[in-house]
Structures are given as structure tokens and as C-alpha cells.
Please model this.
Amino acid sequence: MLAIARGSFIATLRSPSTVVFSIGFPLVFILAFAFIGNNSVPQIEVALSPNADTMNAVYMKIAQAPGIAIKKESPELLKENLEKGQISALLNIQKTNDARYEISIKTSQAVNPKSIAILTSYLNAVTQDLNKPNNWQANNSVFINNKIEKIPGRVYRTIDFILPGQLGFSLLSAGIFGVAFLFFNLRQQLVLKRFFATPITRTYIVFGEALSRVAFQMIAAVVIIFIGVVFFKFTLVRGWITFIEIMILSFFALVVFMGCGFIVSSVAKNESTIPPFANLFTLPQFLLAGTFFSIDNFPKWMQPLCNILPLTHFNHAMREISFEGASLLSCWKDIGNIFIWGIIVYAIAIKVFRWE
Model:
């Protein structure tokens, strides 16, 4: 088994396409999205404090202002999102004793200062418009409290969302395309048949090939995470503990994805039919599983479908572990979903697997 694993691992290293799909493509996407995220103006998403006065023209004017998006969430979730920088500020609108309206801004250290500067300019435009003659009630005016409250927070960078998705992209591609082409070629060249005629059991043949694929892909995962941490400040909130848990989760997900590769290699009649079959597994997950952008951007009716996909749960668990500091045990729902997929996939793979 180890001899097969060693030979297959060396062959994998000599395959340019495998290296490109496993390491090259994910790094290209990481670079592209990281630079886009660092150079673009952040979207100004705000929320209102629970005790904010919304029964006035000030709130209506802010809600209609271009460039400002008001999110409505529970107070606990708003505080959490503010600490992570996922919303730029909490706005509080209150009427003062002298019948004026005051807009207070509460933000966190995780928010990009450019976002607050842009938000302040938008609010200044709103107040200037409201304070025009004949455009506001008599003896009333609106002003912005220049003292901005800032709470502690951890910066949620673009890389903290992108890298887990690209790691999932790499694992899924390697698990399906890599295994499918590998075993199809071994079967087509009668290598599996020759292996089967030797004293080695079929279990060790499969384990040997699988072990080489897992070893290579774990190295690729380490490279991706290393580049993310060193060059783009990817967050490993608990350091080495987080890294080890990420690797365990990646190993588990890769084993499940490889089952899909076994299925594709068995049902494909020739090499040209492998990509269409493989894309049936991969394309929906690349697009719908939160790989490149959040599934919250999809319509509500589509989100339950997104939440069924195994890559969705891998991406979610990865982000919870890396940034939120969650443990593998606390991600049991996501891991359980992946495990159920593993049972289904390998039940089918065993049924359709062929040696010739």
C-alpha cells in the first residue's frame, strides 16, 4: 500500500494540471479578490440602534440616501457584526431637549476608517438638505454628534472570507477531477487489473492511491493557508490550534469529495465524458456554496438549496473555526451534514466501482 502511495504521489507531483488545479487556481483567485477588496471603496452598511427614533423625516432621508444600506437584525447580531466590521456603524437618531434631532455614530476598531469618513460625508449631505429653509419644521434642525463612539473589534478582511472558499475549491477539484481521471486511466491502462492479480487486496490498492492524493492535497492546503497568513493576514484566531482543526476538517472533507471522484471514474465511458460528469458535482457548489460570495446574496427561495450542499457546510465551518474561534465540536451540524453526504457518496461509489 505504501509503495503504491509513494509511486502515485511522485506521479502527482509530475502532473502540471494537478498542481495548477490544486494550488495555482486557488492562489490566483485569492490574489484577485484580495487586491480587489483592499483597493475598492467599502459598501456602507449601517444599522439603527434599538432605541433609535424612526418616526421622523431624518430617518426617512437617511433610508433613501444613495450609498447607505440599512440592515435590520437582532440587537445581539448587530453588536457581533459591528465588532467584526461587517456593518460600518450603528446610528442613533434622538430628539434633544431643544427640539433638535441628533445623529450619533457608533462604530468599532474593525471598521475601515475610510468607511466612516464616507458615511460621515453622506450624513452631512443629509443634514444640509434637511436644514435648508422651508425644508424642515419650524424651530427644528438636525446635526451630527462629532464624538464617534468606537468599541473594540477584530478586523474582518476580504481574505477571511475568500481563503476558506478557495481552499474548499481546491479540495473539491482535487477530490473529484483528480481521483476521477486517476482511476479512469488506471482502469483503462489495465493497471488496476494487474494490481488485482497480485497478492495485494483491493482495499489496499484503493487506500494506497487515496493516501497519495490526500498527502498531496494536504500539502497544497498548507501552502494556501501559509500564503494567506503571511501575505494577506488571514486570521487564525487561536493560532496553531486553529490551524490543526482546519487541517482535520480539510482531511475529512477531502475524503468525502474523493468519493464523488470514484463515482465519476466508474460511470464515465471514456475520458472525454469525465468533465461533464464531474461538473455536475462541482459547478453548482462553486457557484452556490458561498465559495466566492455569501449565499445571503441569493434569493430566499434558493438559499435552502445552497444549504444542502456539502461545500457550503465546509466553507461555513472553516470560517467559523478560523475567524470566530469555534471548535470542531461546536461545528457538529456542518460536520454532520458532510458526514451524511459521505455515507451517501460512498454507498453509491461501492455500488458502481469497477476494476476493468
About this structure: The chain is about 65% helix and 10% strand. The CA atoms of residues 128 and 142 lie 9 Å apart.
